[in-house]
UniProtKB/TrEMBL annotation:
It comes from Salsuginibacillus halophilus. It catalyses: L-glutamyl-tRNA(Gln) + L-glutamine + ATP + H2O = L-glutaminyl-tRNA(Gln) + L-glutamate + ADP + phosphate + H(+). Its EC number is 6.3.5.7. Keywords: ATP-binding, Ligase, Nucleotide-binding, Protein biosynthesis, Transferase. PROSITE patterns: AMIDASES. One of its GO terms (cellular component) is glutamyl-tRNA(Gln) amidotransferase complex. This is Glutamyl-tRNA(Gln) amidotransferase subunit A. It comes from the Bacteria. One of its GO terms (biological process) is translation. It is an enzyme of class 6 (ligase). NCBIfam families: gatA.
Length: 454
């Protein structure tokens, strides 16, 4: 099959289903076809050597793309076209995949259902009345609906893993600093990571192999060699020690979800692994600490969207302060404003010690919980989310219920460790996700276990 045929198939599928799924905010049909043609011409010249040669990809719309509109699903950036690429885009270009467009998300990656998109909510391809999860809902939906071979997402508190679970695909959040954040529009810089969403663990390892690695344009990037993830897939799990945190199977976790995770553990036992119950005692404070830290960082990061430097500017030309105010009040959605206010409050003098500093101390305790367990076990396993996908509109007026949904993914970001979500069955026709958490920079073991189970 030629690259043009492959890219045509992807574009046709998008035309066929995306009017219902709404995974895409921008489709670069002409550019994608032109690039496919160029790649086809390379076959026979240098053989098409790229590791992801010709594969149609979708990119979450908070990853900047040269010459292609990048909105973060915000009205404020409706007309923003970057002049350069994120590092991951340069790497994908070098690997010769073909970006077919930019994917829907919660505005500035704030949300768990995609309903905070400033444009239109993406839908779950398994059931269009249900959310695809968020914030990388477009990424998960596009892969699940067969619109692209792989997608890139970003994960600050679960935004790759939760939508992957809800849509029945594989989503990897690498170790913090493993993948360059240069060109990822910052939400909470100490938590954000880019990662791949795919249909299989093998595909996922191939994509991470290409996007991981040191980048001197990201001051937090890890200066470490990238091991061979693909090679790790062949290994078996005999003798591996799995930790199962009791907090991850407790109250609030749906019974079907629990049953599917127990089945998965039995499968892994059959393959020669053993598991034991452990405790991550500070997990109960993770959601509270996360919403203080993430909102604080967001309030600082989003100050740049003032109508002067990027995107839409309100037409209040005679008064600068008025222009800032109108641009931000009209351009930003309710959830984004809620976080900016919460973060500004938590960082203000007089409250800083009680909120932000306290939250950072809790974060250290959570990280120590993970360090302790991961010293004795190869991986930690539990569900990705307490339930399967919920109905569109079900939680929209209740931010606290929506926040609690991330209780099993957020601790992983606070600790900075890698974790994958892989499909582990269905409940009432909707997919359930299994979460496998690893030691820092040990994505290889995470992939090995995920592949053996899959
Ligand atoms: N749902 C979480 C939030 O709203 C996580 C988002 C994310 O990982 N980007 O902050």
């Amino acid at each position: 099959i030629s690259v043009s045929e492959l890219v045509d198939a992807s574009l046709n599928r998008i035309n066929e289903v995306d009017g219902q799924v709404h995974a895409f905010l921008t489709v670069n049909e002409d550019e994608a076809r032109a690039q496919a043609k160029k790649l086809d011409e390379k076959i026979g010249v240098d053989g098409g050597k790229g590791a992801l040669f010709g594969l149609p990809a979708g990119i979450k719309d908070n990853i900047i793309t040269r010459g292609v509109r990048t909105t973060c699903a915000s009205k404020l950036l409706e007309n923003f076209t970057p002049v350069h690429h994120a590092t991951v885009m340069e790497k994908l270009d070098a690997a010769e995949s073909v970006s077919v467009g930019k994917l829907n998300m919660d505005e500035f990656a704030m949300g768990s259902s995609n309903e905070n998109s400033g444009f239109i909510a993406a839908r779950n391809p398994w059931h269009l009345d249900y959310v695809p999860g968020g914030s990388s809902g477009g990424s998960a939906a596009a892969v699940a609906a067969g619109e692209v071979t792989f997608a890139l997402g970003s994960d600050t508190g679960g935004s790759i893993r939760e939508p992957a679970a809800y849509c029945g695909v594989v989503g990897m959040k690498p170790t913090y600093s493993r993948v360059s954040r240069f060109g990822l529009v910052a939400f909470a810089s100490s938590l954000d990571q880019i990662g791949p969403l795919t249909r299989s663990v093998e595909d996922n390892a191939h994509v991470l192999q290409q996007i991981a690695g040191f980048d001197n344009r990201d001051s937090t990037s890890a200066n470490m060699d990238v091991p061979n993830y693909v090679e790790a897939l062949g290994g078996d799990v005999k003798g591996m020690k799995i930790a199962v945190p009791k907090e991850y199977l407790g109250e609030g976790v749906n019974e079907d979800v629990r049953a599917h995770v127990s089945n998965a553990l039995r499968e892994l036992e059959k393959l020669g692994a053993t598991w034991e119950e452990v405790s991550l005692p500070h997990s109960q404070y993770a959601v509270a600490a996360y919403y203080l830290i993430a909102s604080s960082e967001a309030s600082a990061n989003l100050a740049r969207f003032d109508g002067v430097r990027y995107g839409v500017r309100h037409d209040a030309r005679n008064d600068l302060i008025e222009m800032y105010k109108k641009t931000r009040s009209e351009g930003l959605g309710d959830e984004v404003k809620r976080r900016i206010m919460l973060g500004t409050f938590a960082l203000s003098s007089g409250y800083y010690d009680a909120y932000y500093k306290k939250a950072q101390q809790v974060r250290t305790l959570i990280k120590e919980d993970f360090d302790n367990v991961l010293q004795q076990y190869d991986v930690i396993i539990g569900p990705t989310a307490p339930t399967t996908a919920f109905k569109i509109g079900e939680n929209i007026d209740d931010p606290l219920t929506m926040y609690a949904n991330d209780i099993l993914t957020i601790p992983v970001n606070l600790a900075g460790v890698p974790a994958i979500s892989v499909p582990c069955g269905f409940s009432h026709g909707l997919p359930v996700g299994l979460q496998i958490i690893g030691k820092p920079f040990d994505e290889r073991t995470v992939y090995k276990v995920a592949h053996a189970y899959e």
